[in-house]
Amino acid sequence: MVESQHGLQQPRHTHLGNVTAIKFTRAVALSHSLIFSRHPAIDLQARCRDHVPRVTNIQGILFLPRRTGAGIVIAAAAVAIVASTAAAQSIPRTLTMDSASAAALARRPHRERPDTIRAFPIHKLGDGVYAVLGDTGRGSEGRSNAGFVVTQGGVVVIDALASPAQGKALLRTIRTVTKLPIKWLILTHHHPDHHFGAIVFKRAGATIIAHPDRRTLASEDGDDAMVSAWTGVLGLREMQGFAFADTPNVPITHDTTLVLGGRTFEIQVPGTAHTPGDLVIWIPDARVVFAGDLLIEDGVAMVVDGSSGGLLRGLDRIEALHPAQAMPGHGRIPSDPIALIRETRCQTLTLRALMRRDVQEGVSMSRALASLPPADRDRPVSRNSRVRRNAVRVYAEMEQELVHSSGVADAAKDSVAMLSCREE
Ligand SMILES: [Zn+2]
Predict the structure, then answer these.
(1) pLDDT by residue (tens digit) across 167-181?
(2) Distance 99 CA to ligand 1 centre (A)
(3) Would you say residue 121 lies in a domain?
(4) What is the pTM of this model?
(5) Ligand 1 center to 120 CA (angstroms)
(6) How far, in Å, CA of 116 to CA of 291, rounded?
(7) Does residue 124 fall inside a structural domain?
(8) How much is the mean pLDDT over the chain?
(9) Within-domain flag for 137
């Protein structure tokens, strides 16, 4: 457990776009957070949040507790030294998580502080069904959306946001509507920006409902590395009290209908689409679907952790529900859910067609990518960056398609589906 790891360890580098930042090990980043968070007198200032992502060749980072009202200063410093041999000792990595959106969040000049805001804006989607609105107009870079459903037996929360601080703000938001107990938390997938606030709901007594496949690129180096990277992005303040809570009490591995508090939830398992652990939540009596990151407000869903073919199949299933309301993982609620589903499908089909043609013509991946707009510097999940990173994935998929017998059928199916895109 984190609590037992109090020693400083060698920091590592994390590449955030073109910027090199110090990556703390969990022992550095979290143990101090956890230790100090137990001292009510200490308000840990996470200097790294503001400075690290911008600076290269940091020689050390100091965490300074603020002077308390009683005048007591409890000094605690964690200095992480980048050894001159850092190149040999550190492990350069690429922070490829979709959820690196929070990196952009963290750089906003006037970033909101979830630990200080009372409640997030909400929008009623149907009887007892509420959307908790994240940022709009920022695609995947904005704070993610969440939701909750009030049933006779308690509250069903859908996604938990990106940190314990955001989870607490989400809980306060729910409390503006109902005092009923928080009984269940359903996670749409296992990206940090959707579940790192889950511990708040687990501690409140929620049963966790999720796909058991927690694998993402963000976690491929292990949970510790993911937490330390994420802490470097959001800052210790937001992460205080963190513990993982996305391992399901109720694992969902195939389509499942749950009756929670007397209300029916149809949980679709689309297969690997945005991630291997995707769930789509359909509330039939309200005709509302929570699509997770299979839908993003600008129609560019990421498949870096998933599969473009799987995404297309998932979108088909969502469209077949004929939802009155569709909640995307990020961004505004579409006035026409079917239009957003189709836009997402067409974006995906277009990229597949481009990459398929290039693969078939023997065009190298780098040349294929050169035909796309450049990724945005330091914005790993900006629209252009998403398209470009998706292209890498889709190019590889098309290479696979070329050697599989199903490839011709897949290409034909795409062509038929593309017809509706050209009509629009
Ligand atoms: Zn995601």
Answers:
(1) 999 999 999 999 999
(2) 6
(3) no
(4) 0.75
(5) 20
(6) 29
(7) no
(8) 79
(9) no
